[in-house]
Design a protein that fits this description.
alpha+beta, five-stranded antiparallel beta sheet, 5 strands
Amino acid sequence: MVKQRQAHYHFTAKANQKTLLEDISFYFANVIREPDHTTLDSPDHGRIETRNIWVTTQLNEYLDFPHVGQAFMVERISYNKKSGKETRVVAHGITSKTPDLATAEQVLQDNRKHWSIENSCHYIIDWIFDEDRSRISKGFGPENITRLRRFAVGLLKSKGVNNVTQKMRQLSFTPRRVLDYLKLTGNTQAISAA
C-alpha cells in the first residue's frame, strides 16, 4: 500500500502490538544520547510541556513490519505550575517515512497531529454516540459498533463537514436524508448543504 498509493503511515506501538513495542522500547532503553529534537510549549492551562524525540533507522531491517522508514521514541514531560508536579509519558512508534522524507522534528509533528486526530474522534464518538454508556457487550459487538461509529464520523468528515454533531442531528431526524446526503440512491433528492 505504501508503494502502490505512495502514502505513508505513522503508528504508535501499543500493548496490542506487544513484540513491536518491546523491540522498540528495548532499543531506546539502551541508547544514551541527546534527543534528536526538542520542543517546549508555551504555558497552557497552567502547565508547561516539553517533548523530546529520538529517531533511528537501526531497526528498519529487524522489525517485523512492512516499509519501516524510522522507529521513534517520544518523551512528554509536563510540569503543572500550580501543584509543582511533573509527569513523564513515553511513547514508541514507527513511520514509513525515511530520514530524507521526514526529520526528527517532522516525525514529532506527525505524532502530535496523530493524537489530535485521535482525541477529536474520541470526543465526537463519546459526545454523539454516548459510547461510554453503550450496553453492547457480547462477542464482537462492541468492536463492530465502534468501527461503524468511526466510519460514520470519518465519512462525514470526508464530505467536508466541520460540525459533525450538528450534521448527525440533522440526518438523524429522517433516515432518507442520510441516503440523499451520501448520494447512495438512484433517485437522490437535492438537500441543503447546511
